[in-house]
Amino acid sequence: MENFDHILLFKTNLEAADQLQITELFNKEGITGWNIDLDDEDHVLRVVSYSLKHSYIIQLIRGCGFECCELT
Amino acid sequence: MRTRDINKEQLVKQKAIETIVKYGLEGFTINKLAKACGISVGTPYVYYKDKDDLIVKIVMEEGARMEEAMLLDFDPEASLEDGLRIQWRNRYKYMIENPLLGQFFDQINSSTYQDQFLKMFNGEEGNLMSLFKKDISAFIHNVVKRGEMDEMPFEVYWSVAYSPLYSLLRFHHRGKSIGGKPFQITDEILWAAFDRVVKALKN
What we know:
Strand order of the largest sheet of chain A: 2-3-1-4
InterPro entries (chain B): Homeodomain-like_sf (IPR009057), HTH-type_Tx_Regulator (IPR050624), HTH_TetR (IPR001647)
Structural class of chain B: mainly alpha
Keywords (chain B): DNA-binding
Distance between the termini of chain A: 21 Å
Largest sheet of chain B: none
Order of helices and strands of chain A: EHEEHE
Shape of chain B: globular
Number of helices of chain B: 10
Largest sheet of chain A: 4 strands, antiparallel
Strand content of chain A: 25-35%
Number of domains of chain A: 1
GO molecular function, one term (chain B): DNA binding
Structural class of chain A: alpha+beta
CATH class of chain A: Alpha Beta
Largest interface: A-B, 19 and 18 residues
Helix content of chain A: 25-40%
Oligomer: heterodimer
Radius of gyration of chain B: 19 Å
Protein name (chain B): TetR/AcrR family transcriptional regulator
Order of helices and strands of chain B: HHHHHHHHHH
Distance between the termini of chain B: 66 Å
Number of strands of chain A: 4
Helix content of chain B: 55-70%
CATH architecture of chain A: 2-Layer Sandwich
């Protein structure tokens, strides 16, 4: 079976207007594969990364003043 | 460890179609979908990036499946009656076996996604339904060239050729015809309507 541990999912309060800020933040970290599902009530942030951990992303997003926790 | 599970992927897709047909596209979210499937909210995101990605992928996959079903045994060189009969058989079979998908595509066609899909449906090679469009155009061209049918605007051809079929199928799926009369489609009814259609189109 294919492994999907590299898809990291978070519940956030990010809005469309915050995408630019997140783009800059993630570019600096070398994270390119990500998107936010703004249609969903959890404003799900989806990051594709083979090396980063959930806790690291949460720290980054929270550091910018947004809410972010792992989506379970 | 999170792993791809084909059964779960199929369940997510099936439930997405059901949920969209039942509640429409506007209020559809991945959260609601996960609840309908009884799975965790994260699971659909393993397969799809977001709501748009999910809808586009389902339309592409199901569109390809529909194209294959519609072209089964279809020969663009066939006579008007034979070619049309295969089209009726294929469409009838597809709609009976996939009652939700007809409604799903109706929802898509009356949504903001319509423009996006019309672009995919522009007939260029490799695009959604391009083979289907090519074969159907060739079929019409051939029957006109052989003098079996007069040339007419495509919309006129389509309306005469298929509207009776889709009306009967709509009655069937509702279980009622005009005035609430109980209705169920049978092969006899189907092919009786087909004979009338051939009479209308054939020279």
